[in-house]
Amino acid sequence: MLALQRWGSPWAELTPEHAHPGVVLWGWVSCHLDRGRLPRRRVLVRFDYPTLSGPGSRSWLLIERGDAEICEKHPGGDEDLVVVVSDPAAFARWDLGELAWGDALRGGAIEVRGSRTLARALPSWKRGTVARDEPIAAGSSAGQRRRPSATATWWR
Fold first, then answer.
1. Which residue ranges in the chain fall short of pLDDT 50?
2. What is the reported pLDDT for 47?
3. What gap in Å lies between CA 130 and CA 41, rounded to an integer?
4. List of E strands, the chain
């Protein structure tokens, strides 16, 4: 399946209409979330989608005891992080492994507010990434990483 994705990606146009951020978040949590990297304490992350209006313009990722779920209503408690997804297509490209988290931050597609420690850790919760959001290049071993950018910004 991954080979088909790599083959077809150059011809697929990913637009905001095809990349609802709530669906991307659901896909990330359902398929790509590395539960072994999640905090063991309770963490609440709010996702804001300013390109949407109405009830679907916000959701929460609730992490408890090494597991996670998406909530459509505030589950109570303090929010540890707020992730603002201004460019849904960029968020989808990150989830697909086509865009590095740091590049999405630098480009303004995604903004993260709150705990600096959690903000740095959040992209590493995605399977297929290694320390500091360095995706494993296709065909490389898990021990090989892309060279980090000298201007990497992990906090906005």
1. 130-156
2. 96
3. 21
4. 43-48, 58-64, 67-71, 81-85, 110-114, 129-130, 134-135
Distance from C-alpha of 116 to C-alpha of 142, rounded to nearest angstrom: 26
Tokens of 143: 């021990």
What pLDDT, on the 0 to 100 scale, is given for residue 75?
96
For the chain, counts of helices (H) and of strands (E)? 5, 7
> How many Cα atoms sit within 13 Å of 118 on the Cβ side?
20
Q: Can you read off the two tokens belonging to residue 1?
A: 């399946």
Encoded tokens for 41:
């304490």
Domain ranges of the chain: 16-132
Nearest to 46 by CA among 117, 112, 133: 112
> What are the start-end ranges of the H helices in the chain?
2-8, 21-27, 88-95, 101-106, 116-121
Distance (Å, rounded) from C-alpha 2 to C-alpha 38?
24
0.70 surpassed by pTM: yes
pLDDT value at residue 131: 43
46 C-beta neighbours (distance < 10 Å), count: 18
CATH annotation of 16-132? 3.30.1050.10
Angstrom distance (rounded) from CA 89 to CA 19: 6
